[in-house]
From TrEMBL:
Transmembrane segments: 46-69, 76-96, 134-157, 163-186, 198-215, 221-242, 254-287, 293-312, 324-345, 351-371, 392-413, 419-438
A GO cellular-component term linked to this record: plasma membrane
Matching PROSITE patterns: MFS (PS50850)
Recorded topology in the membrane: Multi-pass membrane protein
Any one Pfam family match given in the protein's UniProt record, by short name: MFS_1
Keywords: Membrane, Transmembrane, Transmembrane helix, Transport
GO molecular function: transmembrane transporter activity
UniProt entry tagged with the keyword Transmembrane helix: yes
Residue ranges of coiled coil: none
Entry keyword annotation includes ATP-binding: no
Signal peptide bounds: none
Protein name: Major facilitator superfamily protein
Length: 444
């Protein structure tokens, strides 16, 4: 279905409002962990499963999004995902036990896991190639804003009301989105019906095992049971990859990983996300443990960086449309290198303002890399393969983001912030070298 400019605008706005609300749900709960621990009388390791379980389900359903886009009317799909998220949120609000809270949280994770690659695929397909950088910059702005807003919203609601108010907030926003979506969301894609390969879905569950191993390794060490889970998961994923490459209608078209620029784009967007997620996790610890700030002020110290990230996302997208994606991403990786270098140098003086400016430079680097890399990858694919590309990028980005947090946690446990800053500095130097290999065919 063709969309005129007005309908396209409302279509995209509705998608982004829904995505913004769901993105807040990812970042908001960390502030509420102490409250959950007290309310349910459980340790932090158990409460952290509100995030870990959400992430596991999200990752395992991401590969389903291309099949769903091809076989389910997008309006029906979008409204269904919002309904599942609202239902999960209502379960959390009225849950008498933590186990019921987890059920609702897993339902939220399912909705987010399907929606994130799906809405990016749809936006990319309905946007002319020459405008994709700016539009995806807006997508990055929304996600960056949600990263900053989530902890603030939850902190205010916890201070004024209670933890259930956080989820009431999500519910009210998404009810408004649902009403808006009934009027603005259409099915803009040409669908190609296919049979769902159930065996591929089963084999893809290996992603859960890998992520479980990654998240539990710092807590338990390489126990025998964890190693068995990892080996079994790797075997399942190997079977998944083999099957995708050899059946007529695969769940994911992994062959696109051989396409020049797309393969590099996958790695670059992951490298960018690894730095971003690490900054958001370790800098509050740095501000509290090294600088001596309170938890409240350590959170507020992240706001300038997140605000800069949000503001630069659309600027970088427009610049990429004009000058090409390679130049923009090279700027981004130089910013990454400068930011991590300044953080490393600052360890000798531990100045608060230098730390805030350095972390802001790192997040500015993300604005020049993550969405431009995603757009570059999409531009290297035919439209029919964009859903598969978006799903691959989102899944790998999430897995490597989780790996980055584990690496940072292990390095912090074994030594200090010095090792963390050096590791991510080296990572972004390698990524800069990869970015130099891009064949930038501007606006093609």
């Amino acid at each position: 279905m063709k969309l005129d400019s007005k309908r396209r605008w409302w279509f995209v706005v509705t998608l982004l409002i829904g995505t913004f609300t769901m993105s807040i749900s990812q970042s908001a709960l960390s502030t509420a962990y102490p409250t959950f621990m007290h309310y349910f009388n459980l340790p932090a390791s158990t409460i952290s499963w509100l995030t870990t379980g959400f992430m596991l389900v999200m990752c395992v359903v991401m590969p389903l999004s291309p099949w769903l886009l091809n076989n389910v009317n997008f309006k029906l799909l979008y409204l269904t995902l919002i309904t599942i998220f609202i239902a999960g949120t209502l379960i959390i609000i009225w849950a008498p036990t933590f186990q019921i809270v987890m059920l609702g949280r897993l339902m939220e994770g399912f909705s987010v896991g399907v929606l994130f690659p799906s809405y990016q695929s749809v936006i990319l397909e309905i946007t002319p190639i020459k405008n994709r950088g700016a539009v995806m910059g807006t997508v990055g702005l929304v996600m960056g804003s949600a990263l900053a807003v989530g902890p603030i919203v939850s902190g205010v609601l916890l201070q004024l009301i209670n933890w259930q108010a956080i989820f009431v907030f999500f519910t009210l926003l998404l009810l408004l989105v649902f009403i808006l979506a009934t009027q603005t969301i259409v099915n803009p894609l040409q669908q190609k019906k296919s049979q769902l390969d159930v065996l591929s879905v089963i084999l893809s569950i290996g992603i859960i095992g890998v992520l479980y191993f990654i998240n539990e390794l710092p807590k338990k060490g390489a126990t025998f049971s964890l190693v068995i889970i990892l080996l079994g998961s790797i075997i399942m994923l190997a079977g998944f990859v083999y099957r995708q490459l050899h059946i007529k209608e695969p769940l994911l078209h992994l062959q696109i990983l051989t396409i020049l620029n797309f393969d590099i784009a996958v790695l670059l967007t992951a490298a960018s996300y690894m730095s971003l997620i690490t900054i958001t996790v370790i800098m509050p610890l740095y501000y509290q443990q090294v600088i001596g700030l309170s938890p409240l002020w350590s959170g507020l110290a992240l706001v300038p960086a997140a605000a800069l990230l949000s503001w630069l996302n659309r600027k970088s997208g427009k610049l990429a449309d004009r000058t090409g994606f390679k130049r923009v991403m090279l700027i981004g990786f130089i910013l990454f290198i400068v930011g991590w270098s300044l953080l490393l140098i600052n360890l000798t003086v531990n100045n608060l303002w230098v730390a805030i400016i350095s972390s802001a430079i790192v997040e500015a680097g993300n604005a020049f890399v993550m969405m431009p890399a995603t757009t570059l990858g999409a531009n290297s694919l035919p439209n029919s393969q964009i859903p598969h590309g978006s799903s691959i990028i989102a899944t790998i980005r999430q897995i490597l983001g989780s790996t980055a947090i584990v690496i940072a946690t292990v390095l912090l446990g074994q030594s200090n912030f010095h090792s963390v800053f050096i590791f991510f500095l080296i990572l972004e130097v390698i990524a800069l070298i990869l970015a130099l290999m891009i064949k930038d065919r501007q606006n093609t």
